[in-house]
UniProtKB/TrEMBL annotation:
InterPro entries: NTF2-like_dom_sf, Tim44-like_dom. The chain crosses the membrane at residues 47-76. Residues 93-104 have a biased composition (Basic and acidic residues). Residues 1-23 form the signal peptide. This is Predicted lipid-binding transport protein, Tim44 family. Pfam families: Tim44. PANTHER family: BLL5807 PROTEIN (PTHR41542). The keyword Transmembrane applies. Keywords: Membrane, Signal, Transmembrane, Transmembrane helix. Residues 111-256 form the Tim44-like domain. The keyword Membrane applies. The lineage of its organism: Bacteria, Bacillati, Actinomycetota, Actinomycetes, Propionibacteriales. It comes from Nocardioides scoriae.
Length: 436
């Protein structure tokens, strides 16, 4: 190859690298262009211009040495950039979460063994079909999000998740923006949690999902890219699927890496759920059998003042009407807390609308006390509940945690309004007034 051709090749190599760097980083100041840079320009540069050190005449030796140096520089620079890309391809939280990849593999193997057993009696738990469904839902959701396809999102997302996504898309539209999410690689899905509950629509399966994504926000009027993640990211998310009314799996909850880490250590809810359900049904059955003939003024069956000591009055009344027993109240509270957690951890599944989105992941009740009587017909109480659980609040727009800690259990004080329904259903939570 002629020396001039070799030099042209070296220049082309440098030029291509410059173009890529500019496209990624934008603007001037790159390592290969403009006055005073290392490899070009006028006098004073190290390798160019008159009297340059390596130009030794027409035999091309100097040019070959120059080419070797240029190639070495480019290779080292690309290697360094590749290492930088790997370090910056995820948020700090995701990089930390990837350290648990080994733990996730072990968890997935253990959970799939349980799921295989469930599939023997319920084909909807077939592991291969579940993984395929999770992959389909993930990809479909990203495409529908990018297209603003609310109809598709409403079909594949549970109401609470759909409401959250629709709200965020509406926010972008109000700003004259749209978002684009590209799935570049994956997703890789692992089954890491399962709950086989008595009610068909209460069954859940949780997946740890990893995919390489690229996303950006676009001004709808000008087409300008307003914000951009220049390098692909490889986030970890935990997607929980739940059966809809027809028995098909839909997305009931989405947790980011840090929020969903608990799925790698949670106890599997299979037989334990059946035992828990049987116990609760037994409590309600006893309450129904021992309830007296309905009277117009059931609250008057106690002589204790509801105004002075509602908790004492309820305990006294429970001696003649088991529906007011603390254990019956606890059934209603426990069911509500579980439903709260299963609905993406969000209180939005009720009529309660809080400034920030509330998230309840786990909660174990320590004690309850009837605070006061709200209504006599229907009978409604305010009940104070002390519990231990993971509770936090996130900004509805940014999803940033604004209160609490998604990985730490803490003491909770909740105040529920509860209504007495028929004995077979017990008490229903109708409002949550505060969480402390």
């Amino acid at each position: 190859m002629a020396a001039s051709s070799v030099l042209a090749l070296a220049a082309a190599t440098v030029l291509m690298t410059t173009t890529t760097a500019s496209a990624r980083g934008g603007g001037g100041g790159s390592g290969f262009g403009g006055g005073g840079t290392r490899f070009g320009g006028g006098g004073g540069t190290r390798f160019g211009g008159g009297g340059g050190f390596f130009f030794l005449g027409g035999n091309g030796v100097g040019l070959l040495v120059l080419l070797a140096l240029v190639v070495a520089y480019v290779l080292i620079r690309n290697w360094s950039q590749s290492r930088h890309d790997k370090r910056t391809s995820n948020t700090t939280t995701d990089r930390r979460a990837h350290r648990a990849d080994g733990q996730a593999e072990e968890r997935a193997a253990a959970v799939e063994a349980q799921v295989d057993v469930l599939a023997d009696t319920d084909v909807s738990f077939d592991p291969g079909a579940l993984r395929s469904r999770a992959t389909q839902l993930y990809v479909t959701a990203q495409r529908a999000w990018t297209a603003g396809d609310l109809a598709t999102l409403e079909r594949i997302l549970a109401p609470v998740v759909y409401g959250k996504w629709a709200e965020q898309l509406s926010g972008y539209a109000a700003r004259g923006q749209s978002t684009v999410v590209e799935v570049l690689e994956g997703p890789d899905v692992q089954i890491v949690n399962v709950a086989n509950r008595p009610g068909e629509t209460e069954d859940t399966v949780t997946f740890r999902i990893v995919a390489t994504l690229r996303d950006h926000v676009v001004d709808r009027r000008t087409g300008e890219v307003l914000t951009r993640k220049d390098r692909s990211t490889r986030p970890i998310e935990y997607w929980t699927l739940r059966k809809d009314g027809s028995g098909g799996w839909i997305v009931a909850g989405i947790e980011q890496a840090e929020d969903g880490h608990h799925h790698l250590t949670d106890a599997l809810e299979t037989d334990a759920w059946n035992q828990k359900s049987v116990g609760r049904d037994a409590v309600l059955e006893v309450a129904e059998r021992t309830s007296p003939v309905r009277t117009a003024d059931v609250l008057g069956l106690t002589n204790v003042s509801w105004a002075d000591d509602a908790d004492h009055a309820a305990a006294d009344l429970s001696l003649v009407d088991a529906r007011f027993d603390r254990s019956v109240l606890e059934v209603g509270i426990a069911r509500f807390l579980e439903e709260w957690a299963m609905n993406d951890g969000s209180l939005d599944f009720t009529a309660v609308r809080t400034a920030h989105r509330t998230v309840m992941r786990t909660a174990t009740v320590r004690s309850i006390a009837v605070r006061d009587l709200v209504s006599q017909d229907p009978v409604e109480f305010r009940v104070a509940v002390e519990a231990d659980g993971i509770y936090y609040e996130v900004d509805r727009w940014t999803e940033a945690v604004v209160a609490g800690d998604p990985r730490t259990q803490r003491s909770l004080e909740l105040l529920f309004t509860m209504r007495l329904d028929d004995a077979s259903r017990g008490w229903t939570v109708t409002a949550v007034e505060g969480v402390g």
